[in-house]
Design brief:
With 422 residues, this protein is mostly helical. It contains 18 helices and 2 strands. The protein is globular and about 75 Å long.
Length: 422
């Protein structure tokens, strides 16, 4: 009884309040996105808002059940859960139907489940378990091999076998936890440079890329002129690797990416104008957001929404409903709520007293930050449309349950910190 009381007194109620605000406001906007003047009650199971409400209530129950589970359970079962998850991910393409070229949804009766949404949480637990070992220290690149593999394996299964690029890319967010545990910032800079190389090569040609790389690595060679030979060898190897990335970018773009993925990137980079095709979603989203002006058209009064101009308006493009009906003011409040949510997650991560909890916490920070950045960025036309949900806002049971698991496991670990020594 005392232990239970300790949990409820130690849990972060500020975070739960933010979770409830985002979830319930998201639910209201799901109803607004699909509303017409003959619409049934918001609680009716015949419309998507009614289904979302049921899932939201289920998620709340799930969250509070997670708070009652002993925090050591996640560490003990980390690898077992990971192994089961990999088996499910491998089996998914054989059990799933083709949905817009993706094989990531398993249908059970009248319900559809996307295992990739739960894979993020379980992968975070497995990574935290490995890096949380008493003898583990992040000193050299060799210490990152196993954590990288734990991330790359489900990522490749989701991307290659299930053809779900958006969900797979979110796994890159786990690098934030590596960085917090001591991974060199040069790794992040190397990743950013790889993205720049890809964009420049695709947008213009390989020649400007070679010029940029020559300038960067030439400057590096000048700085290392009096350094030991090993530094110069490493720099030369890196230069060759990036040349390979540049050459491989063109091949990957033309032969690996799906046609619709290539078109989305071309539209984003200004290589193609396709307002009725690949650019349609983003154009209609920008029209909807812009038409909301400062205060919005009012709840349930969005014309772009009512006339179904914006595809996926209650899932991937739910934020445009906020912009149209609640305006700049409402959109700002939502983004500030998400900012508070992310900052609170970082606060929780920093106050953890053991490595397992802190690694898991930063994995959670990375996942939520990645989802928020990509979703809002694609709705505003700043990033390619890759189709990932806005946390707690977008319609869907799998995403809601996955995010709830991520958050409440962290809250359970955080509530237990008062019983741990520094």
């Amino acid at each position: 009884m005392n232990r239970s009381n300790s949990i409820w007194s130690s849990v972060d109620w500020v975070m739960i309040a933010l979770f409830l605000f985002l979830s319930f406001f998201g639910w209201l906007n799901i109803y607004g996105a699909g509303y017409n003047f003959e619409q049934t009650s918001i609680f009716s199971f015949s419309n998507r808002a009614g289904k979302q409400f049921v899932w939201l209530m289920t998620a709340l129950v799930m969250g509070f059940v997670i708070l009652l589970i002993d925090e050591k359970t996640y560490d003990i079962l980390g690898y077992v859960l990971y192994g089961v998850m990999i088996l499910i991910l491998v089996a998914t393409p054989f059990l799933a139907h083709d949905i817009k070229g993706s094989y990531s949804w398993i249908t059970i009766g009248s319900m559809s489940i996307q295992p990739a949404e739960f894979a993020k949480c379980i992968t975070a637990i497995a990574v935290a378990k490995y890096m949380g070992r008493y003898e583990y220290r992040l000193r050299t690149w060799r210490d990152l091999v196993v954590p990288f593999l734990l991330i790359v394996v489900p990522m490749l299964i989701i991307m290659v076998a299930q053809r779900e690029t958006g969900s797979a890319l979110v796994f890159v967010a786990f690098l934030l936890a590596f960085y917090r545990q001591g991974m060199s910032g040069l790794v992040l800079l190397a990743g950013i440079l790889a993205i720049i190389v890809f964009v420049v090569t695709i947008r213009w040609s390989i020649l400007p890329t070679l010029i940029i790389l020559t300038v960067i690595f030439g400057w590096g060679a000048w700085r290392l002129w009096h350094k030991p030979l090993v530094h110069k060898v490493i720099l030369t190897v890196c230069f060759v690797v990036y040349i390979g990335i540049a050459c491989g970018s063109s091949y990957a773009f033309n032969h690996i990416l799906q046609p619709h993925q290539r078109t989305r990137i071309e539209v984003l980079l200004g290589m193609k104008d396709d307002p009725a095709g690949a650019g349609y979603n983003v154009n209609q989203s920008l029209i909807a957001i812009g038409s909301g002006q400062f205060l919005g058209k009012g709840y349930l009064q969005g014309t772009q929404t009512k006339l179904k101009f914006v595809p996926e308006q209650d899932t991937d493009f739910i934020f445009c409903t906020v912009g149209e009906e609640w305006g700049f003011l409402g959109s700002t409040i939502v983004l500030l709520a998400y900012l508070g949510f992310i900052l609170r997650l970082i606060t929780i991560a920093e106050r953890q007293r053991d490595t397992f909890s802190q690694v898991y916490a930063y994995c959670v920070v990375g996942v939520f930050l990645m989802h928020l950045t990509i979703n809002v960025g694609m709705v505003l036309g700043l990033l390619p449309v890759i189709g990932i949900p806005l946390p707690f806002f977008s319609y869907g049971g799998s995403s809601l349950f996955g995010f709830t698991m991520l958050l409440f496991i962290l809250l359970r670990l955080d509530a237990a910190r008062v019983n741990k020594l520094h």
